[in-house]
Structures are given as C-alpha cells and as structure tokens.
Amino acid sequence: xxxxxxxxxxxxxxxxxxxxxxxxxxxxxxxxxxxxxxxxxxxxxxxxxxxxxxxxxxxxxxxxxxxxxxxxxxxxxxxxxxxxxxxxxxxxxxxxxxxxxxxxxxxxxxxxxxxxxxxxxxxxxxxxxx
Length: 130
What we know:
Strand order of the largest sheet: 1-2
Structural class: mainly alpha
Helix content: 40-55%
Number of strands: 2
Largest sheet: 2 strands, antiparallel
Shape: flat
C-alpha cells in the first residue's frame, strides 16, 4: 500500500515538474536589461502599455518585426534603436524617482511612478524641448 502511495506521489511530482518546464518553453524570449528579470508577464505587459499610452505609440515603435513569424514582433531583438532610447529613458525615470523621491526600498525602482514617461511626453513620442 505504501509503495503505491509513493508511486502516485512520484508520478504527480513529475507531472508538475514537466508542466512547469513546458510553461517556460512556451514563454517568448526576453531581453530585459533595465527592468527586473523576475517581472511577471502580466506586470511587464502592463508596464509596456503605460509606455505606449504615455508616448502615444504602438509596440512597433521600439520593437522590431519578427524575422520568421509574419505580422509579429520580436520583443527580444535589439535591432530598433528606439528600444535602447527607451531603456535610457526608463533609467532616467528610475534615477529621478530613486534619488529625489522617497520610495519603498523593498520594491524595484522601475515600479515607482512619481515621475513617469507621461510627466514629459504626454502622448507625444518627441516632446518639445527634447
């Protein structure tokens, strides 16, 4: 009886491990150089949508077309120079928020929103004076 229980537990464990591994294989490649490496897909998508809105652009403003998948973007590629410009601006807002405003040091500064992209851009990808 005990041996059967251990077999069931072992099989269930293997299924869970296989499911987690399969989930990681399905995740698109990431190329995070400024944002936290452990950011969830949901939080990353939400953050990217705030950038889209603040600049009045779509994802293709910073992300390159996928080379092999038609009508798709390659979010990990660094081919589009606007992606690096975006990273510079993310670093800038992180620095301003971290250095000039109080924040909870247990949170990554990328999640701070005292000064955001919208503070200057206000829906314009190239705001006046920049």
